[in-house]
Specification:
Elements: E1 3-14, E2 17-28, E3 32-36, H1 43-51, E4 58-63, E5 71-72, H2 78-84, E6 86-89, H3 101-106, H4 112-119, H5 136-148, E7 154-158, H6 166-181, E8 185-190, E9 202-207, E10 210-216
Parallel strand pairs: 3-8, 3-9, 6-7, 7-8
Antiparallel strand pairs: 1-2, 1-4, 4-5, 9-10
Helix pairs in contact: 4-5
Length: 217
């Protein structure tokens, strides 16, 4: 199994609180992986450790990029990891609130705008509005558009369906499956297994900052 990225004995601390307790987590390249767990299980901290948002107290992050050769990126900041192709959709605000919707969608590439509107036609009448004035669900679509239409090869998505209707979530899952089929790697952090059409390849169940179970679906 070719790997995209891997956590080895990763520990994340926020002050005196340790959120991850020596987590080993291999993420397969070109596959959809689900990090399953309740709030406080360590799902978000795991994504943040992979993206460089949360520095490790100990352990390491190893980047493979599907090449078979490991590169230690533990000390690499978020910006440099994004240059490798790591894209994070946080559970909290994922837009630039002072920019318009159109500016948010063209920030990485003007070519992303048509693809974003094809996925979320609901955004077309909102292009001239500042993103901070949108509803939570509308902001989520803007944030998802930036990740799904961007160049990232490893997509880290934290509870992607927050504020979205079931029909929209199903549309996003279809888009994710197409990206995986094209060779991208997707990691979803969820409280429950995603419904069809999403079909995860691997599931890691987290409890209290540790991997409690791992299985293929």
């Amino acid at each position: 199994m070719a790997l995209e990225v891997e956590l080895r004995a990763a520990r994340v601390r926020y002050g005196p609180l340790e959120a991850l307790h020596g987590v080993d987590l291999p993420i397969a390249a070109g596959a959809m992986t689900v990090l399953l767990g309740r709030n406080g299980s360590g799902r978000t901290s795991t994504l943040h450790a992979l993206a460089g948002v949360a520095p490790l107290a100990s352990g390491s992050v190893r980047w493979y990029g599907g090449s078979g050769r490991a590169r230690d990126i533990t000390a690499m900041d978020t910006f440099r990891r994004s240059r490798l192709g790591i894209a994070l959709l946080p559970a909290e605000q994922g837009v630039f609130p002072s920019l318009t919707v159109a500016e948010n969608l063209t920030l990485l590439s003007g070519a992303g705008l048509p693809a974003a509107l094809a996925l979320f036609p609901e955004l077309e009448p909102l292009l001239s509005r500042t993103a901070g004035t949108l509803s939570g669900g509308e902001q989520r679509m803007v944030a998802l558009s930036r990740v799904l239409t961007g160049p990232g090869r490893l997509l880290l998505l934290d509870e992607l369906g927050l504020g979205l209707a079931e029909e929209v979530v199903a549309r996003v899952h279809t888009a994710l499956m197409a990206l995986v089929a094209a060779g991208r790697t997707v990691v979803l952090a969820e409280q429950s297994l995603p419904a069809a059409p999403a079909a995860p390849d691997l599931v890691f169940e987290l409890r209290r900052g540790a991997v409690a179970a791992a299985y293929e679906t």
